[in-house]
Design goal:
Blueprint (H helix, E strand, L loop, with lengths): L9 E5 L5 E4 H20 L10 H21 L7 H16 L13 H30 L8 H43 L3 E4 L2 E4 L5 H32 L9
Antiparallel strand pairs: 1-2, 3-4
Helix pairs in contact: 1-3, 2-3, 3-6, 4-5, 4-6, 5-6
């Protein structure tokens, strides 16, 4: 099951401060950063005022999609958040799709969506304090009555946890289901005498098609949907936290 249940493997250890373990999730994250950098360099090379090249048209379509999504969800004054939302979308989508290349999905590591969710939580807290001040923010925990204090604290803690578990659960759950079905089809192939060996390499006929279809659904479709949901929740929570903030002119 590609280490889903055991967590990410340690790729190597940096021999400082007693040894810093670098997991495969971190390595894959670095590779995605490099890939996105090279892709951005390619798409934005020799830009034209009136785009005629397909790569520039694709880049402008993506930028327009993110800008429109931010404006529709958060409002026009939040358009400056488009780069952050675009980064979340790209990193989350590619972090899930790397599993199609045989690598472990980044979002199947709970630390990854939890880190993104904590970043959103920091933004939520920042805008709540900016809108009502520190005193107003603290008073909000005792609203509408003081006895609600424990529940309000739990509600605040539940926000980043629910965001993280939603993405982690869907991605890792899909990987587990695919692995279980893959193993079951292997056993069924052997039972039906559809398992063959060629020079020490095994071939189970029933494992050739169904797991691939499931992988496309869980990795491609579900990965993209979960990335979009996570980005949308980030926009909704942040803009809601600042809904009382006075309007500022661009």
């Amino acid at each position: 099951m590609d280490g889903i249940g055991q967590g990410p493997r340690v790729a190597f250890t940096i021999p400082i401060f007693g040894g810093i373990e670098i997991t495969e999730t971190i390595v894959i994250g670095w590779l995605i950063i490099v890939a996105v950098f090279l892709l951005c360099r390619f798409l934005t090379r020799n830009l034209e005022k009136v785009p005629t090249k397909k790569r520039q048209i694709i880049a402008e379509m993506f930028v327009g999609f993110v800008n429109n999504t931010v404006i529709t969800t958060m409002g026009k004054k939040w358009k400056h958040y488009a780069p952050y939302i675009a980064t979340l979308l790209v990193y989350a989508v590619l972090g899930a799709l790397v599993s199609l290349l045989g690598l472990r999905s980044m979002t199947a590591d709970f630390n990854v969506p939890l880190t993104w969710a904590l970043m959103t939580f920091v933004l939520i807290t920042y805008y709540k304090i900016k809108s009502g001040g520190v005193l107003g923010y603290l008073k909000g925990y005792a609203s509408p009555v003081f006895v609600m204090l424990p529940l309000n604290i739990l509600s605040e803690i539940a926000t980043p946890l629910s965001m993280a578990f939603r993405m982690f659960g869907n991605i890792s759950g899909g990987a587990v289901i695919t692995a279980l079905i893959y193993g079951a089809l292997g056993a069924l192939s052997r039972l039906c005498h559809l398992a063959f060996e060629f020079g020490g390499l095994g071939l189970n006929i029933m494992q050739l098609f169904i797991p691939a279809v499931l992988s496309i659904y869980f990795d491609l479709f579900s990965g993209c949907i979960q990335a979009y949901i996570f980005a949308t929740l980030t926009m909704v929570y942040v803009s809601s936290a600042a809904e009382e903030e006075p309007e500022t002119s661009n």
